[in-house]
Specification:
This protein has 817 residues and is mainly beta. It has four domains: 293 residues, Methylamine Dehydrogenase, Chain H (7 Propeller), CATH 2.130.10.10; 170 residues; 126 residues, Immunoglobulins (Immunoglobulin-like); 177 residues, no CATH class. Helices cover 4% and strands 50% of the residues. It has four helices and 71 strands. The protein has a 16-stranded mixed beta sheet that branches. Strands 46, 47, 49, 51, 52, 54 and 55 form a seven-stranded mixed beta sheet that branches. Strand 13 and strand 14 form a beta hairpin. The longest helix is centred in the N-terminal third of the chain and has 13 residues. It is globular and about 80 Å long. The N terminus is likely disordered.
Length: 817
């Protein structure tokens, strides 16, 4: 008992957090439900660059100690009371208890794997849907250790550190025994790869791990406590301390301490690249690093920001000591909208773009950005609609303009054109207006392709005009209208880039980091990366060659060389996990894409594949790119998978029976009517200007008992005959009624098949509808619909029905009643 008390008493950070806990203990606790972090707030975002959202209470004033984001659409936060909260890109879930001790750290390399550690020596693992029971990994005779930090670059490798100076490694199934690294408490660890980690302690020392052993500590910060460390690669790390200092690591040595925050304690830092980091402090400030300097912004009043996580350069999430969460990468503004029949209204809009444009680019060159936005229709507008007898509103389309402006808000001549408009891909949606109730809807957009001009300058990408087309119904009659919305003056820029003048000597550019074609892939399908190499000069670049190296921390990987050749990339294997690709010569301004595809056959669930690409030339030097993580999904009886266009995904491989009463086979169409695939124009793909290869979709195909959805199958009308089927996924790109999604639904009956019809429910806002036969008029189907007659398959005692459903977008429920 005395040993445990001593251990806690020397932990200054624990004492400081404890003081905060006592302070907030006087606050009334209010139960919360899922809440949108990106809720719009009145007024214009004050920053001239991408900004932080307002703090949103997601955990009823409970201190949230850590957050980790695998992507802008998946984060996990953990708190003092042993709860976990999951962020899905727009909302944070209610707290879910996973432990009875305070959770100090969490690390999520993918959306299907996280590890969290607590102050009682336990680790808890998340598999994408549920958490394991706490596992004791740091219990000794004198009592449990306090695990301060955990870092997982893959689902099969993690390192956790404790306040006794011990480190523990995870191999995908179990944790090692303690390895003593330090004589004092280790406060933080960061592992960008399975063969490189940095840990820091409470007396200013840093320790490095090479995949098998730890070095002795380097005193890099005197006796100051190093609160956090983040490494974007083995050649770049940042550590921060309790006196407002930051230190950088270049792969061989640490810089001297640089005061970036006065004397404030810097609790956390997260580095996405060597030119983008975000740090947070005890006074509610977020500090941004651009590769050379730090800037500071008060984003959370006086609340201490305990943790920050930035999976990309255009998105971060932070959590504080009062139960709040904030996101970075969003601009909030009140748009002035002219609504026919109503007049002018002020509508809150929250908008972001991802990925960020490159921090600098040499002309000529191109890059893409994609918008996301939340719109709020104010209550007073909907009150007027209700009083006019409006029974439903359908939001048919939204176009969103982004302007390329100079820092003085003039049209920039460094991009051409200097204004681009994108259309929403996930509309239409229909809702019923309610009195005194605003309606918020989210939209995603076609990618915008920006072309740089040979005029150097800084370009700010700023939200512009919005046009909303909608249809409202009064007394059964539809009425089409359009509302124009203008941004306020001085609206914050989403992001910026510096366009450099055309190089007079041979030069080329490859992106510093490349996201995967799909973040998750179902084995044995291939997945990989499209690496664009651009000649940024006015003379040819000769002798280009690329070496691609990938790994998963385990078994050697092989490439889908045939698929790469079909996509226009000629490569040969040059060793385990390595391929050499011939790029050839590039003319002035030309771009060529290296399509690297990895075979996932036989890989285990949760395997994380990462890598690098080194591009060399005979006359223009070399460039390197890091490859974003691909997480492997293994379908066991097919309930959860990643659907790829034209490759059927089936919910179960078992024969239908009383115990397996339903089955669905989903097939996405090959093309969508927007540009969304990375292989546009590549060999073997029939892409044209009006259609493109559809994106992959993570799907859930799940049978539900009819009692689980009383709205779809009301008991008063006899329920449904057999199970209903849930088809879940982000199908927002698949909106074409000419090329709809198809789902073959089979329901087991056994002896007798009762006469019934197929019903379809697209969302809770739409009632179930009886499906009619599919008709094709002017090349368009009347989706959702049933294609052809229902089939009765099997023999007496083993009968099933089979129906083919066509639909677009949405997350449908399909039933027979």
């Amino acid at each position: 008992m005395n040993q445990i008390a001593s251990r806690s008493s020397i932990r200054w950070r624990s004492v400081r957090r404890g003081a905060l806990i006592r302070a907030v203990g006087l606050t009334l606790f209010v139960a919360t439900t899922a809440i949108a972090i990106t809720a719009a707030t009145p007024g214009v975002a004050g920053a001239s660059q991408t900004s932080w959202s307002a703090p949103v209470d997601v955990d009823a004033t409970t201190p949230i100690y850590a957050v980790s984001c695998a992507s802008p659409s998946f984060c996990v936060a953990v708190d003092q009371d042993g709860n976990a909260l999951v962020y899905n890109g727009s909302t944070m879930s209610a707290p879910t208890s996973i432990d009875d001790a305070a959770l100090y750290s969490v690390s999520c390399p993918t959306a299907t794997f996280c590890a969290a550690v607590d102050d009682n020596g336990n680790a808890i693992v998340y598999n994408g849907s549920s958490w394991s029971a706490p596992t004791a990994i740091d219990h000794e005779e004198e009592g449990p250790g306090v695990l301060n930090s955990v870092s997982c670059p893959t689902a099969s490798f993690c390192v956790a550190v404790d306040d006794d100076g011990n480190a523990f490694t995870y191999d995908g199934s179990s944790w090692s025994s303690a390895a003593n690294v330090d004589e004092t408490g280790l406060y933080a660890v960061s592992c960008p790869t399975v063969s490189f980690c940095v840990a820091v302690d409470q007396t200013g020392n840093a320790f490095t791990y090479d995949g098998s052993s730890w070095t002795s500590g380097d005193d890099i910060d005197g006796y100051d406590t190093l609160e956090s460390v983040s490494c974007s690669s083995p050649t770049f790390c940042v550590a921060v301390d309790d006196f407002g200092n930051a230190l950088t690591y270049d792969g061989s040595s640490w810089s001297s301490a640089l005061d970036i925050d006065g004397s404030e304690t810097l609790f956390a830092v997260s580095c996405t690249t060597a030119s983008f980091c975000m740090a947070s402090d005890a006074a509610g400030n977020a500090l941004t690093y651009d590769g050379s300097t730090w800037s500071s912004d008060d984003v959370d009043g006086t609340n201490p920001l305990f943790s920050v996580s930035c999976p990309t350069t255009s998105f971060c999430a932070a959590v504080d000591g009062d139960g709040n969460a904030l996101t970075y990468g969003w601009v909030s503004a009140d748009y002035s909208c002219n609504v026919p029949g109503f007049g002018t209204t002020t509508d809150p809009v929250v908008v972001s773009e991802t990925p960020s444009p490159p921090s600098s680019i040499t002309a000529p060159g191109t890059f893409q950005t994609t918008l996301s936005a939340d719109f709020t229709v104010p209550a007073n507008v909907l009150n007027a609609a209700v009083s006019d007898g409006v029974t439903s509103v359908t939001l048919d389309s939204v176009s969103f303009t982004v302007n390329g402006l100079t820092p003085d808000d003039d049209p920039s001549n460094s991009v051409t054109p200097n204004s681009l408009s994108a259309s929403a891909t996930n509309l239409p949606i229909t809702f019923t207006p309610q009195t005194n109730t605003p309606f918020t809807f989210a939209t995603t957009y076609n990618p915008e392709t920006w072309q740089t001009a040979s005029n150097p300058g800084t370009v700010n990408f700023t939200p512009g005009q919005i046009v909303v087309d909608y249809t409202y119904v009064v007394s059964g009659s539809p009425n089409a209208e359009s509302a124009d919305c203008s941004p306020p003056s001085g609206i914050a820029a989403l992001d910026s880039t510096v366009v450099n003048a055309t190089s007079p000597t041979p030069s080329f550019e490859a992106p510093a980091s490349v996201p995967p074609l799909q973040a998750e892939v179902t084995a044995p399908l291939a997945d990989g990366w499209a690496i664009a190499v651009t000649n940024t000069s006015m003379v040819p670049v000769d002798g280009l060659s690329a070496q691609v190296t990938v790994g998963d921390g385990g078994a050697p990987l092989t490439y889908d060389l045939a698929g790469m050749a079909k996509a226009g990339t000629s490569c040969s294997s040059s060793g385990s996990g390595t391929a050499t690709c011939n790029v050839g010569a590039l003319g002035p301004g030309d771009t060529r894409t290296i399509n690297a595809l990895v075979d996932t056959t036989g890989l285990a669930e949760g395997t994380s594949i990462t890598g690098t690409v080194d591009v060399t030339s005979s006359n223009a030097g070399s460039q390197s790119s890091s490859l974003g993580a691909v997480s492997v999904v293994v379908v066991e009886n097919g309930a959860v998978a990643v659907a790829v266009p034209k490759v059927a995904v089936t919910s179960t491989t078992a024969p239908l029976s009383d115990s397996v009463p339903s089955k669905v086979t989903l097939k996405l169409p090959r093309k969508v009517p927007v540009m969304s695939g990375p292989f546009e124009g590549a060999a073997g793909h029939e892409n044209g200007p009006a259609s493109a290869k559809g994106p992959p979709v993570a799907v859930t195909l799940e049978p539900l008992a009819s009692s689980q959805d009383p709205e779809m199958c009301p008991a008063s009308s006899g329920g449904c005959d057999g199970d209903i089927v849930e088809i879940g996924g982000d199908f927002s790109a698949y909106t074409s009624t000419a090329k709809p999604i198809s789902a073959v639904v089979k329901i087991f009956y056994g002896v007798t098949v009762p006469a019934a019809s197929m019903y379809f429910q697209d969302s809770p806002n739409d009632g179930p509808q009886e499906l009619t036969a599919c008709l094709k008029t002017a090349g368009q189907y009347n989706t959702p619909c049933v294609k052809g007659k229902e089939k009765i398959i099997g023999s007496r005692g083993n009968l099933s029905t089979q129906d083919t459903i066509y639909f677009t977008g949405g997350d449908p429920l399909v039933g027979r009643k």
